[in-house]
Amino acid sequence: MPNVFLQPEKGIFLNSVTSTNSLIKSEEFPHGTWIVAEEQTEGRGRRERKWEVLGEESLIFSGKIGLENFDGGPGLSLFIGTAVCKAILSIYPELARELKIKWPNDLYLGNKKVAGILIESEVIGSTVTLIIGIGVNLYGKKETIPSHLTDAGFLNTNPDRAGKKSEILEKLIPTLNEAILLWKDSEGRKKELILLNELLLWKGQSVSYTENGTPQTATLEGLGENGSLILKTPSGTRLDFIDSPDDFHSLN
């Protein structure tokens, strides 16, 4: 089977679903399809955490891509995150200094989480099916955020700059396809990792994480060649993570 990327004409718009990722896994939807929902009642994040989309305007998206002999890795979600950043910044260029990627799959504006990414895959023979789920809090008022979501925020709180979902979506489809192509190409991957290091949240800052139930501190140095997270401990030991450490947060 040849590679099948997201097709602009294969979009499906729905009012309410349980989960766009769960829905698009059905054989009813071929590779190249993407779904956008106005409401999602059982959204999921990584490690089966619940994902709540907030505000008056949000983007709830899942796309289905088919690839031959595709080698994923810890950096793939980062490349998808960069694609989402590119789409957003093409519409909101004024956010360029504040919009960052928290390793490995969240987007932050300042110190507030505004988007999450969930990538799932299925391998049948030599064909890999990628399900790319994206949730973005596009517009809302700060006072509407539930008290238990202390780090949640909105991409935009200005009503005069709201109503940009369709424009972001139009940019998102090609940037997602481009992200997969860059990941598959060794030279393209190297160049994109340079950009990712610039977008990386907390780079050069002190961070905390939990290891075997014990809090640890380190300095976030940057990304490895395959998108892994590089931390440096106070003793000078270099740590290389391919999955997010527990309770990973900034100390600044």
UniProtKB/TrEMBL annotation:
Residues 1-180 form the BPL/LPL catalytic domain. Its EC number is 6.3.4.15. This is Biotin--[acetyl-CoA-carboxylase] ligase. Gene3D superfamilies: Bira Bifunctional Protein, Domain 2 (3.30.930.10). It holds the Pfam family BPL_LplA_LipB. GO terms for cellular component: cytoplasm. Keywords: Ligase. CDD domains: BPL (cd16442). It comes from Leptospira stimsonii. InterPro entries: aa-tRNA-synth_II/BPL/LPL, Biotin_CoA_COase_ligase, BPL_LPL_catalytic. GO terms for molecular function: biotin--[biotin carboxyl-carrier protein] ligase activity. SUPFAM superfamilies: Class II aaRS and biotin synthetases.
